[in-house]
Specification:
This protein is an alpha+beta fold and 120 residues long. 39% of the residues lie in helices and 13% in strands. Strand 2 (93-96) and strand 3 (99-102) form a beta hairpin. This is Transposase.
């Protein structure tokens, strides 16, 4: 989805810059044009799947559906923490950070196999 988002911006916004009557000549002008395009795209252009603008669909998200991100320190750790290898036990478990976790529901996991684990 991220790649598709980038593709939309490249085709629908960046592709139009050269055809503007007065193309932006500074970063501030590009940012201003970008904000204007973003408000139009999310507020007016209908999504092919929902038939509604993105803002209209986003407004239907309820408080119960929102997930609060962890604090900034946890996010930094997630960004820089490398995956660690763990060996699957005969009980189909692994140990990580002093705790034991079942991996029996992971498709095709095998006893003795080494798997990569990271904080999520």
């Amino acid at each position: 989805q991220v790649e598709k988002g980038n593709d939309i911006v490249e085709r629908s916004f960046e592709g139009r810059l050269r055809f503007m009557a007065r193309p932006p000549t500074s970063l501030e002008e590009i940012n201003s044009a970008g904000w204007q395009w973003m408000r139009w795209f999310n507020g007016q252009k209908k999504h092919s799947r929902t038939g509604q603008p993105r803002y209209a669909v986003w407004l239907r998200i309820t408080a119960e559906q929102l997930v609060v991100a962890p604090d900034a320190q946890v996010m930094r750790e997630l960004a820089i923490h490398a995956a660690e290898s763990r060996k699957v036990s005969p009980q189909l478990t692994i140990s990580y950070q002093g705790k034991t976790f079942s991996v029996r529901d992971i498709p095709d996991v095998l006893v003795g196999e080494t798997i990569s684990v990271t904080r999520n």
